[in-house]
Every structure is written in structure tokens, then in C-alpha cells.
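User: Second chain of the day. Same drill as before.
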Amino acid sequence: MPPAREVISVHAGQCGAQLGGKFWEILCNEDRLGDSFGRTGDTSFGEQASGAYVPRAVFADITPASLDCLRAGPYGQVYRPENLVFSPHTSTFGENLHQEGLGGHEHAVYGAIRKEAERCESLQGFQLCHGLGGTTGSRLTSALLARIRDEYPKSSVLTRAPLLPCRHAALDYHHATAQELCEQMCSVDTLLCTADPARARCLAAAAVFRGASWHLHELEEQIVRMRDKSSSSYMPSMPANVKSWWCEWPPSQVKASATLIANSTAIQSVFRRVLEQLRSAKAEGHRHARPDETDGGEADMMKLLSVYEALDALPAADVL
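Assistant: Same format as last time:
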């Protein structure tokens, strides 16, 4: 049996710790882990010398409150104690992002990440969960990302951060048919960001279904119907645009769920809002160190916007 492709999760700041605590609580519940947390090794869990399996996770914050709440939670004993890193730090984003090397707090956090990576047999990548407004979630994550990309260039990196308020949509999937679930999945009311996909082009998409006694071909037929209803929003040159995947195990506390992950040119509106906020922050003197106004973040965002604008302008047949 081939070794598991391990993924290391890094949770930075109060936001990252709270989201990470809930993430691992749900994961442990789904895997039906008991008090001993015994299981076979896989992507998310590693084995201790005692034989117990623990999350491949590192938590870091500049205040102990969030880590203390994590330890006191229902699954606080499952984490490696050395992977809950606390170190006081009070500097600003701009002052430290552009300084030489990592500070003491970053070294402590990265040391825990490196030790976790050394325990892996076939490291696949990292996922970082953090906030964007606080010192730890923004500055620390930026420094760690640069270090990870430098030392693990072949590993995948996924970041998760709450950027915009989610739409509050209470959807009951208890008795939803495949058609209803697909319609709710593609509805504008269930988007996790404020955008208008009806006026954009969907370049690629993947639909993930969990739970219920469906057949994959039934779900794929419903996806094709949804795609045909809004054919102008999809690329005619890509008939197999939407990839589908189904898992018989439902998420915790619900009987069925559906998630649509799409690469759509509608994301331009989100990028433009982020760019405006970035420029506003610079104008108000948010960055004490005053780096170059044309530094990489803004330039990369402008380049990405130009790519999506060019795709929107081209005829569908020319976008390959």
C-alpha cells in the first residue's frame, strides 16, 4: 500500500485557532475517534510513539487566550503540546514583513512546522488558516509562506482566510432531491463572496457531493441540466467543464451536502475591492515601514485582473 500523502495544517492567530479548532473537531467526529484517538495513519493524522494518532497541525498566536481555549476544548488533548506555539509579539505588518529573516516568534513557529514535516514520509503540502486583519494572521502568515515556498518548492500550499462576510442562507438538505441540491449549490444566494456569476464566464468547476443514496451518473445529469440552463456563463468549448465527485459518508450533523468550486471571471469584482482596500490602507499610513508603493502584492493583483479581463473579452471559442 503506498504511503499517505501528508498535509500539514498551520493555524495562525485567534481567527486561525478558532477555525482550526472547529475544523479538527468536525474531522475527529467524522472519523468517529474516541478518547484514545486510535486510527490508521493518513493524510491528516500522524502516529505518536505511544501508538495514538494526532493531527498534523501547528497552532500559533501572540496571546495565550486562543490556545488556552483550544486546550480546554473537547479535543484539546489530541494535539501535540509542542505544536501549540505562544510567543508575545507586538510589531506591525509592514515593519516586519520586509525585515531581514524571521523574528523569534516566526522561528519558533517554523521550527514546529519543520519538525512536523520531518515526521512525514511523503509530504504533499501545507494548508494555512488565518485572518487578514490582525498582526499574527497577516504578518506571520506572510513570513511563513515565504519560508515554506523557499524550503519546500515542490509542495502545494493552500491558504484559507475569511475575506468577506458570507451570505446567511439556511438551506435544509435533509430531504433534498439531487435536482434541488444542484439548484441550491448553483444559486447566487449561497455564494461565499459577493459577485455576479451571471455576467461572467465560468472557466472550470468541480462539484463535490457527500452523503445520501445517490448515483454519480444521476448527479452528473443534473449538473449537465444546470450547465445548459446557463450556457452563456459556461464555455461551449469545454463540454466536460464541471467535474463531479461523490462520497457516501456525509458531513457531521447533516445527511447530505453539495459544494461547487468554480474558477469564474466573476472573481474580478472581489479582487478589485481588495485592491481598493489595499490602496486605502497605504494612503492612511497602515504600513509603518513604508515599503515601495509598487511592491509585489499590488502588481500581482493587477496582473491577475488583466488576465481575467482578457478572458472575458475573448469569444468563447478562442478561450482554450
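Residues 34-38, 166-175, 231-239 have pLDDT under 50 and may be disordered.

User: Great, on to the next one.
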